[in-house]
Amino acid sequence: MKISVRTDEPGGTRQTVTAGRHHLTVDASVADGGGDEGPGAHDLYDSALGACKALTAIIYARRRKMPLEGVEVEVESDNSEERQGVYRMKATLHLQGPLTEAQRAELLRVAGKCPVHKLMTEVKTEIETVLAD
Fold it and tell me: Is-contact 64 99, C-beta < 8 A?
């Protein structure tokens, strides 16, 4: 899938992200000179992890016919050592529904193996940035 990111107005910081038929607003914080009209890029990165963990748990529970009624994932990040090569994230899962302790443990294990978690921790990502013609 091709994702497009375009500045909304000349000289501004607000961006519109288009992913398929979906549109998101992204902006820099006021402290960084933006208008804070949407989450920042780091927020989207962290959100991708939380969303993937939630969806992985939901899909797994459906396939196993577990009584999972909902999931909330809180992602906290610590970027204090990012320039030294360490970005810490903590994802806390809140599972709703009449689940047994064994089911809760199984969903925690599965969420820990979600595709974005693996992408962030086990895959070497190569990025090429080029200018358009």
Answer: no
